[in-house]
Design brief:
It is built from 14 helices and 13 strands. By secondary structure, the chain is of the alpha/beta class. The chain folds into two domains: 9-128, Gyrase A, domain 2 (2-Layer Sandwich), CATH 3.30.1360.120; 130-439, P-loop containing nucleotide triphosphate hydrolases (Rossmann fold). A hairpin with an 8-residue loop joins strand 1 and strand 2. The protein binds guanosine-5'-diphosphate and magnesium ion.
């Protein structure tokens, strides 16, 4: 049976609306056949030479009417984004013009591309692996410059090479193992289990670092969540506003003003931090406040670190002690802020024993540099990977990586104590799951899930 013929796709790659220029992409075997029917070059240069830019007119062949004057850039297989013949048509950025040019392409043999179809073809043609696909996806959807930076790092292909290498190594050991299992009477040497154990542990250690880099990447790409916790009126909302440098949260002297959690991103050093202002922790006054306090608990659970906010101008209350208890029990990195340092201090630092407090006045704007330094220090000591090492994974890739790690761990731990065919099963699983991380083994459904997150035209 012959492979189904791959069609030629077209789509607008720039956002809808008016702009100076819009870009239509067309990719597939008939790209230039279709363009030759519709595009008349202005100059004498033969069309289409590869990697050239042409100025000319897109015309309606039936009437000869000009649909637009535009630039066409040519790329030929396999050196293009998709790995196929590809052209980019830069039209005037009026939706009427853009739509007319696209309709002409569709009428003369192209089909409308689906979301992510250009990138999907790039993947299927071996132009990028799944780690690079994920990087493109995250680059396009990045909301913070650090997310964009991480995505660009990943596009350099190093994580891809790493996963391919590790997978290759495990596969090598698996093949050796299978050979000695299946042909024991032949001249194939028996597996040296000590040697294999050492090799597998080495591979496992490398893969664990990769997994840590992926966890760090996920945390940093999303922004490190830091929740402000404290009793009502300790000044959490004021502190948030002070940190942001603007009045984001409502501040009043009425306890229980903040009922919902509020979230804003700011940069601390090179890291994006999501500061979460919460409802004060106390016995709720009404049902709305109760929901707010529930959300506070959730925010605290999800946070990467916590900032305990206390009113330094008053002796610690029972509510304050409850907050302290929560902070101690969270097991997360904690910073203690003694707010209202513009007023005479009434609490003693001993109340915070192992957590030296920082004096801040959110109202008068004092103490922010020290707080920022503390946050930076906390991030530095948290075991996050360095920026250049961080990895971005999609949801399915994370799951696959965890499975690969677990299988490899079983193999490395079990060697010597379990039958070699059990060992082979674990190694096989590790190889398969790593293949899902970089796309060397991946099923169509998973691909659908991955590419439907893309926009049309990418
Ligand atoms: N004197 C003084 N008052 C403050 C300071 N920070 C906040 N307040 C006041 O404390 C009250 C409660 O502040 P708010 O930020 O709403 O506290 P929250 O309930 O913890 O969010 C408001 O009247 C603020 O103006 C501060 O640094 N110094
Ligand atoms: Mg508040």
């Amino acid at each position: 049976m012959s492979k189904p013929k791959i069609g030629t796709i077209a789509a607008v790659s720039t956002p809808a609306g008016r702009s100076a220029i819009s870009l239509i992409r067309i990719s597939g075997p008939d790209t230039f056949k279709i363009l030759k029917k519709l595009f008349i070059t202005g100059g004498k240069k033969a069309f289409p030479l590869p990697y050239s830019v042409y100025f000319g007119s897109v015309i309606e062949p039936e009437t000869g009417l000009v649909a637009d004057k535009c630039l066409v850039t040519t790329f030929t297989a396999p050196r293009s984004y998709t790995g196929e013949d590809l052209a980019e048509v830069s039209t005037h950025g009026n939706p009427l013009v853009v739509s007319r040019v696209l309709q002409l392409l569709l009428k003369h043999g192209a089909v409308a591309a689906e979301a992510g179809e250009f990138t999907r073809r790039a993947f299927l043609n071996g132009k990028m692996d799944l780690l690079e696909v994920e990087a493109v996806s995250q680059l396009l959807s990045a909301n913070t410059s650090s997310q964009a930076r991480l995505a660009l790092n990943q596009l350099d292909g190093l994580p891809s090479q790493f996963v391919a290498k590790i997978r290759g190594q495990i596969l090598y050991h698996l093949v050796q193992l299978e050979a000695s299992l299946n042909f024991p009477e032949d001249a194939i040497e028996a597996i040296d289990e000590h040697l294999l154990a050492r090799e597998l542990k080495k591979i496992l250690a490398e893969l664990e670092i990769f997994a840590r880099n992926a966890r760090s990447g996920a945390l940093v790409a999303d922004g490190l969540k830091i929740a402000l916790l404290g009793r009502p009126n300790s000044g959490k909302s004021s502190l948030m506003n002070y940190m942001l440098g603007r009045d984001r949260a409502i501040v009043t002297e009425i306890a229980g003003t903040t009922r919902d959690t509020l979230e804003e991103t700011l940069m601390v050093g090179e890291y994006p931090v999501r500061i979460i202002d919460t409802a004060g922790m106390r016995k709720p006054g009404d049902r709305i406040e109760a929901i707010g306090i529930e959300r506070t608990t959730k925010a605290a659970d999800e946070a990467f670190a916590l900032i305990g906010v206390f009113d330094g101008s008053q002796p610690l209350t029972a509510e304050d002690r409850l907050v302290l208890e929560r902070l101690r029990q969270s097991g997360k990195p904690v910073i203690i802020v003694l707010n209202k340092s513009d007023l005479p201090r009434q609490v003693s630092p001993e109340d915070f024993a192992e957590l030296p407090p920082l004096s801040v006045s959110a109202l008068k704007g004092q103490g922010l540099p020290a707080l920022q330094t503390s946050i930076s220090k906390l991030i530095a000591e948290s075991g996050l990977s360095g920026y250049e090492e961080m990895i971005l994974l999609g949801a399915q890739q994370s799951v696959a990586l965890d499975k690969a790690l677990a299988a490899l761990e079983r193999a490395a731990r079990g060697i010597g104590n379990i039958y070699q065919d059990m060992l082979a099963i674990d190694l096989e699983e590790a190889v398969r799951e790593l293949g899902r991380v970089n796309g060397e083994t991946v099923d169509v459904n998973t691909l659908d899930l991955i590419f439907e997150r893309f926009c049309i035209g990418k």
